[in-house]
Design a protein that fits this description.
Layout (H helix, E strand, L loop, with lengths): L13 E5 L2 E4 L2 E3 L3 E4 L5 E2 L10 H8 L5 E5 L13 H5 L3 E5 L1 H13 L4 E5 L5 H19 L14
Parallel strand pairs: 6-7, 6-8
Antiparallel strand pairs: 1-2, 2-3, 4-5, 4-8
Length: 158
């Protein structure tokens, strides 16, 4: 029996998603990103949902997809219609959902050989935020703690 891959070669597939991070193929991404069906995955300078502007969506329109799957972050939030003007005027469809659902939907559309772009807002997840705070605290403690060059160790009576 001959097996056919679900996704054609050369197509971008989101292989993993967790709060604040996705993998496109084997490459981890921990910042907001545009994932077109083919070609280069692009950093998207949208650090949060609140920071979105019409220019963010204009950049997507320039990619000329059939549809955009917009992942609004960890929870579903709809962008104002004024932000979407470039997509609407270009006749490009847009669907809004939380980022996890957007990743799954994007993969289904790619497997159907649709020209789709996933526009994903990736804010740092709780684990990343905790790790960053721990790293900063460790660095501050290390800078404040005097460094000793030698350690004699305990004396062993013998």
């Amino acid at each position: 029996m001959k097996f056919q891959p679900d996704t054609p070669e050369g197509v971008n597939v989101i292989t993993r998603q967790e709060p604040g991070r996705i993998w496109v193929g084997t490459q981890p991404v921990s910042h907001s990103v545009l994932v077109p069906w083919v070609g280069e995955v692009l950093a998207w300078d949208a650090p949060s949902f609140e920071a979105l502007t019409p220019a963010h969506f204009g950049r997507i329109a320039a990619l000329r997809p059939e549809v955009v799957i917009f992942g609004s972050g960890q929870r579903l939030r709809f962008p104002a219609p004024a932000l979407l003007r470039a997509l609407i005027e270009a006749g490009i469809g847009i669907e809004t959902m939380d980022t996890a659902a957007a990743c799954r939907t994007y993969n289904v559309l790619v497997s159907e050989q649709r020209s789709v772009v996933a526009a994903l807002v990736l804010a740092p997840g709780p684990l990343q935020t905790t790790m960053q705070t721990t790293q900063q605290t460790t660095q501050q403690t290390t800078q404040q703690t005097p460094q000793h060059t030698a350690f004699a160790g305990p004396r062993i009576a013998g």
